[in-house]
Amino acid sequence: MLLASDRLALLERLETEGRVIGFESEMWRKDGNIIWVSENVSAVRDETGVLKAIEGSMVDITQQKRAVRELKDSELRYRELVDFLPQPVFELDPNGVPTYVNGAALDWYGSGVEEMMVGGAILLKLVVAEDEKLAADAFARALGGEQVSGIELTAIRGDGERVPVLVFASPMNRDGVPSGARILGVDISSLKNVEKELRKIEQTQAAVLRSPQAPSPRVRPG
Q1: Does domain 91-194 have CATH number 3.20.20.60?
Q2: How far apart are CA 113 and CA 147, in angstroms?
């Protein structure tokens, strides 16, 4: 038996359409469990046009509904996890246009990213011009099914700041067909600053050793 609300909706459609294909609804089974069904039904009327009966067929689609729900739950958990990451994450369609960005990406680039998603601008505009070819190559490799790791680029944040990043890209597929690529950028500014300080120290040590005033090693008398 259909639930009351679904039965009413079906009858309303039959009154106006005469035939309904693929009507999905919940119904009670005899054992008390609720299942999902898909119905193809037609209205049977008498010679005056009064609805006398409904004829058709139904298919149990409970398993399909459960699978869809589990997939949506899985996607929701994934989105929650990605939004928790401190690194910017982008999902791009095959044309390189962002279809999804996480919270960190919005923090980095501001409303400009949302405008790109609506207007269809290209993600390459988020890196410096001299790195656009590297970014395009990483995207193309990911779109071709390759996992791309550790490509060093210089990104341009929404406020104009240039930030060194390591880019990781992975392919996205839907029903076995490439549907885009997922891009993650890791800010390596701190690492670059440490490397810079180490170079300064090495240069200072080298300069001291080259200096004529550098103290000679002291040798103990034997």
Answers
A1: no
A2: 24
